[in-house]
Amino acid sequence: MAETKGTIFRIRRFSIHDGPGIRTSVFLKGCPLRCSWCHSPEGIDAQISVWHTPGLCISCKRCLTACHNEALKMSSGSVLIDRAKCTLTGGCTEVCPAGAMQFTGRTITAQEVFREVRKDIAFYGTSGGGLTLTGGEPLFQPEFSLEILELCRKAGIHTAIETSLFADLDVAEKISSAAELIIADLKIFDPQEHETYTGQSNEKITGNFLFLAETGKALTVRIPLIPGITDTAENINAISAFAGSAGRNIPVELIEYNPLAANNYRRLGIPFQPDRVFNKDNL
Ligand code: SF4
Ligand code: SF4
Q: Is the pLDDT of residue 208 over 90?
């Protein structure tokens, strides 16, 4: 039987911020939203690419020699990538002695992810922790997510997913049923504002949330505090009231924004514009 493969961009062991206890967080690549403030831009694109970390680079130029596509050039001590020429051969990543040239993700099987997660099983038991699938968006790779969740549950590992809930109801229902905890990142309550800053309305999100709340599934709401966009009293109160309208006690957590996100945009060579808005021309 063919193994289920997916793409991830990070595995973080001993995480204490992605659900209860000590957890292993697996970051899946690909997301249907385009939040202007996204702190992991390398997780948005489902495709793997290469990126460059200027702070690690020792300007040895080995990557320039290794690239047979002339996709790289040195400018002011930093390597610039011409992505139109790059064919992802990875020659640059192999020769870089400083780890400054890397792929933004990797292809991996669900079984391989499970084997990584299982390494810390002793810590999950004592701390009440387990696996958290996050991203990117775990619902964007449903078969891959489902298999990881099922493998972990069979091994007695607690399972959580951190998700925007932007997905068709059948996908949200299927994946959620395999996870013991859903951490729902609700960003902006007003549908029009949501579309302005993420590129999509939140109607699917709120619909999926209410559906899951009715099933009795363990839910936590997280609101990322983006200055001037999501952190207004009006927005926080509206999301809290919405969570409360489900008729159950659903915790609401406020998450401070990570200002280091700008570094990741620099590494990808794309502009960081947390207050960017979408309109018909740039969607
Ligand atoms: S991945 Fe290959 S083609 Fe792309 S920049 Fe590196 S060496 Fe060049
Ligand atoms: S090989 Fe690595 S350290 Fe050397 S110039 Fe390229 S990115 Fe910088």
A: yes
